[in-house]
Design a protein that fits this description.
Elements: E1 2-11, H1 16-32, E2 36-52, E3 55-67, H2 69-81, E4 85-93, H3 102-112
Antiparallel strand pairs: 1-3, 1-4, 2-3
Helix pairs in contact: 1-2
């Protein structure tokens, strides 16, 4: 069995519950092929860099997969058929990461490092000359 990291983007107008159901269906496809999902992370609704099929945001989900290449190919075929999935990417890796992914760690760090108020300086509306 090979190890994979798989990320997919679902349309912005589907609910979080529908994304979880979609993830469960993909997990079932993998288990029928003899594979398993070792980690499932929902990263939330995030903005896209550019519009994809008239969507400005998407639901991001990460799956760590331990499966045969045939099972992964079947899962990707199912994803191409589904209209709720905008994009997906599967990458084969040597070993899977333990613990939370970098995106989940970033969210925790952002909560800790948030400014506590006070003068932020430079945001009063006046323009400062550029220094080269």
């Amino acid at each position: 069995m090979a190890l994979y990291e798989h990320i997919f983007l679902a349309r912005q107008d589907v609910s979080q519950q529908q994304v979880e159901e979609l993830t469960a269906a993909l997990t079932e496809v993998l288990s029928q092929g003899g594979g398993k999902v070792t980690k499932n992370e929902y990263w939330g609704l995030k903005g896209l860099s550019y519009r994809i099929n008239k969507n400005r945001k998407a639901h991001y989900t990460l799956l760590n997969i331990d499966a045969s290449p045939a099972a992964v190919a079947e899962m990707e075929r199912q994803m191409r058929i589904n209209e709720d999935i905008l994009r997906f990417m599967t990458v084969r890796v040597d070993e899977l990461e333990e613990g939370p992914s970098a995106m989940m760690q970033k969210r925790d760090r952002d909560d800790r490092d948030a400014p506590r108020g006070g003068d932020r300086g430079g945001f009063s509306g006046e323009r400062r000359p550029r220094r080269f």
